[in-house]
Amino acid sequence: MPISFTRYDSGVHTHTVLEGVIELQDILGYLEDLTALIDKDSMENELALIEVRDAKLRGFDFRSVRRIAELSESKADLLKGTRTAVVADGRLAFGLVRMYISIRDPRNYDFRVFKSIAEATAWLGEEIGGDVVATSRAGRAEDR
Questions:
Q1: Cα(29)–Cα(49) distance, rounded to whole angstroms?
Q2: CA 120 → CA 31, 75, 83, 86, distances in Å?
């Protein structure tokens, strides 16, 4: 899977990088893998940074963005109180993330898109770091 994430015990708690060719199933699988790792009680005030800078998005349209929003809504209890910053410097990725933001329910968690990591981490108020507690490779979450 061309999506990898690292979980930290402090600062930005989850750092995700999308690279290579990304399709809808990759995003849906990533959301399932990530939420399977996370304890519902520990998510309050969770910070996440997602980088979509070197990814080639294939086959995305309104229906696929809607499916991602629906899956996110099904995890709403888990995501409550979280803040996620997405860095998308390409026009297509930036536009798709803005579409997602416009159709999702904004009550449960805060989700914004930025053009640079500096803007994103400034909004989050934290840098990437801390001790690594889990990583994923090839779509499989592995505890360290």
A1: 18
A2: 20, 23, 11, 7
For 38-63, what is each residue's pLDDT tens digit? Answer: 765 566 678 899 999 889 999 999 99
Nearest-10 Cα torsion for 50, 56, 59, 65: 20
Give the angle subtended at the CA of 36 by the CAs of 45 and 53, to the nearest 5°: 70
In angstroms, rounded to a whole number, what is the distance separating the alpha carbons of residues 41 and 94? 31
How far is residue 129's CA from residue 54's CA, in Å, rounded to a whole number? 21
pTM: 0.86
Q: Could you tell me the residue ranges of all domains in the chain?
A: 3-143
In CATH, what number does 3-143 get?
3.30.750.24
Average pLDDT of the chain is 84
pLDDT tens digits for 84-125?
A: 999 998 999 999 999 999 998 777 789 999 999 999 999 998
Q: What contacts 90, CB < 8 A, 6 or more positions away?
A: 52, 53
Amino acid at 11: G
Nearest to 131 by CA among 4, 11, 31, 32: 11
